[in-house]
Model the fold of this input.
Amino acid sequence: MKLTIFGASLILIVALAGILAPALTSHDPYAMSLPQQFQPPSADHIFGLDQNGSDVFSRVVFGARISLSVAFIVVTISGLIGLLVGSAAGYFEGWIDTAFMRTIDMLHAFPGFLLAIAMVAVMGPSLQNLILAMCLTGWTGYARLVRGEVLHLKARDYVLAARATGAGPARLLVFHIWPNLVGALTVQATFGMAGTVLAESSLSFLGLGAPPTEPTWGSLLNAGRRALIEAPHLSFFPGLAIFILVLGFNLFGDGLRDLLDPKRTKT
Done:
């Protein structure tokens, strides 16, 4: 429980930093001062300055907005697609189940990250293309989870009783099956947020995410890589931000999974 609260606290800190970014710093993340480039951390610039003389702290806290926004959008879209596809496959079974599951197997035949790299490379680097690329395969994990749960839940007595009263598939799914999927989907989404933050940072690091002028954590890491010995603070602080956020989501997800698992054992 303590680790769950700790994980939630880390997520909250990063989220508040992104929301309150204009109030936390007086420096413009896009402002440049080339004569002051690579300055180390100081009282005025607590994270130092980058290769363009821009304030690293400002770019890190404003970058939190991008990382969290992309993660939330990707997880929401992927979760909704996975919920609909998994529900249809699990409830109707037959050829519908076969068609959807073979499609998922086909997508899983390609490494998701490499497929995202190929898509962004073809369509061009932008946040919209980045989100589309990550959603292309991101929904498959949710679909598999929902399908398995629906196959189990649709045989429960309360669902059979509702069906006996004349409830149709849509009503059974929305009012009797989906409410019981909230816990499992929430846990899956929490881990999905962590994975999306890492994927977005990795693609931005490779120059396939947001435009280089945008203050994303991955692009900050890429810029710091070129001056790792001369100015290690350029890589350290965005890397620390990624570590804190991903750790927070993983700890929070582990705690939720234990909390929502009725078979967990108390220690």
Residues 38 and 50 are 5 Å apart (CA to CA). The mean pLDDT is 89. The first helix runs from residue 2 to 19. The two ends are 11 Å apart (CA to CA).
